[in-house]
Amino acid sequence: MRTSRGLSAALAVAGLTVLTACGSGTGSSSGGSSDGSLEVWSRSSPVTGAVYKKIFAEFTEETGVKVEYTPILDNFEQRVAEAATARDLPDIVINDSGMLGTNVSQGLVQEVDRDKLKGSADLLDRAWDQAKAFDGKYYGVPFNVQSFATFIRKDWREKLGLKQPRTWDDLTALAKAFQTKDPDGNGKDDTYGMLVPASTDRGYASWWAASYLWQGGGDFLTESGDGKYVPAVDSPQSVAAARWMQDLFCEEKVVVPGALTLQTKDAHEFFSSGKAGVYMTGPYMVGKYDVDLGKKFEVIASPAGPGGQATLAEGENVYLMAGSKLQEQQRRLAEFLISPKGQKIGLNSTRPEPPVRLSVNKKVDTVAERGGDARWKMFVDEFNAHGRYTPNVPNWQPFRQKSGETLNGLFARCDADPKAELTKLADEFKQELETQKVYGG
Fold first, then answer.
1. What is the pLDDT of residues 291-309, one digit of tens each?
2. DSSP category for residue 411
3. What start and end residues bound the annotated signal peptide (predicted)?
């Protein structure tokens, strides 16, 4: 998969193409399929894609509007960039809220009038925040939200007579025990403490590290007033948090082999296959691990760091792609996706890999729809009490990619000095803030 920098370049060209198509009247970047169906893409596994198909079938039954749906898991953003270059975008893309800035800056998406969208008042205000761009306008419709928590092999913990971790020190000690004390009892040195997807692809290392950075009292950026930002990634708290994460790799040596090239889609099996005992991930994994492990695992709120508790908050938006000739149908599908019916189907009862992680609709009880599972209540509570979105700069992706590369390098080179590396990163952040015209220093 190409890096974000390569992707940004491709999107820059694609964005110009889309804007030209929309503004000139000479063509369209998308116009549905040949039979007038809405063309919809989502970044989804086949399992999740099957649930989307149920949603779209119900939508078609209710409205008569057909949907041509394609779930794509690998190289999703590259596929979107290629479609934009070819002026053949789908009508709707369902993708990470973190892609909002890129989509807006490259002209790939339409502005959304929140007040004219049926059911919009029923959505959580915090969910709408993930669809709001730096200019205060909305360029997506929130479809789901999520927080993160710590998954633990409960059977291993109880076999070793250890308590649930409440602090970073507890967490490190638990991971060390899983690494060294043969928790599965097979007499082999084949278990690891912590599962970490720390690849530079899509900035995964930064994505994984965000919660821990905030738990340590650090941050990527801080607001300086009037919508301006200054780097905070080199603050003493940020440096201390980065050093603690580096120590997991270098001093404690409790991280699974190959972590530096792992993306989440490849990481999940390490936990269910008995290779790792601690994994910070989202609610979408509860159902899968219920099938794979039964009662052998538990989910707890992530232990507090020196700065307290915090978890990355994010989700997925419904993006109404620019240039579509089916704008009324786009709107109607977006309205159905956020409706109680659409959200309930998306929560997928108690089955694995739901497209809707936590419902954005205030009229839908996520916990009830997931069978009253207390673990899902914990995710809801974590989102509400400790969830933090990444800074609302015009385009977050360059910051995520730059920080992902720096953190990956720190984890790979044990002699690297976190303070020196984060000082360099802060300078890169300053330059990016200036490029995006939001530097407040």
1. 999 999 999 999 999 999 9
2. H
3. 1-23
